[in-house]
Amino acid sequence: MSYFTIAGVQMHALHHGDNTEAMRLRIDALMSRFPQVQMVLFSELMPMGASPHHAQPLPSNAEAMFCQLAEKHRIWLIPGSMFEQVEGATYNTLSVINPQGQVVARYRKMFPFRPYEAGVESGSEFVTFDVPNVGRFGVSICYDMWFPETTRTLAAMGAEVILHPTMTDTIDRDIELAIARTNAAVNQCYFFDINGAGAIGNGRSIVVGPSGDVIHQAGTGEEIMPIEVDLNRVRRERETGLRGLGQPLKSFRDRRVDFSVYRTENGTPPFLDTLGPLAKPQRIDIEEY
Predict the structure, then answer these.
(1) H-helix or E-strand containing 179?
(2) Exposed, middle or buried by CB within 10 Å (0-12, 13-18, 19+), for 172?
């Protein structure tokens, strides 16, 4: 089977607080209206809000509730991400739950939005998972997609669909829309970039096809986006090229260049060391001019 229906959920929620009951109601309503849906994806930090003070060890009661919902509706469920507490460290962690209500993978955000996402540790493990008889899916979170190496690695691991919850409430959302399209095109995959609305995001979720084509772009309010993907389209375009033209994954595989910027034995490239610390910009007083 190559057809598979994924519903992105863009919803209003509390910026600080428990949103799990609202998510449960939304899933129940979604599955009643769109029973064809096989996977549901929420935005980043939707369940417990955006404060690391709500960090909990995993598994947690919230995760258990989502497992029950996945089993009840027989769906794959990615309920956004939650802050995870691990031996004094905090991670921004996403759970992948199968239709049997089992957590099959957890992914820790590799690139916290520093310096603003202060005190959150970086994950180090890429995560893909297989939906039996359908295809391979990869996951990343928000700022991860600004680093092309993340999506490229998932594609090189065989991911045909990237599931990407985000929480963007800032003026750079238009840039992220371009990045989502670029990531889909250069990796020849579907890209689901699902944002929150209201206090937990400025919306404009986007679903992109493997040629970089916009399948759907949401507005700024609440929206449910059930999208049927065709994994055979990914496989065909990876074989014959984007619009019958470029074949970027094959070209990357067959490259002769070894990218020296990634060699770490000699430290970072000298130019990068000139950029200064990773810190918030500070106000310059007029008297200093």
Answers:
(1) helix 173-187
(2) exposed
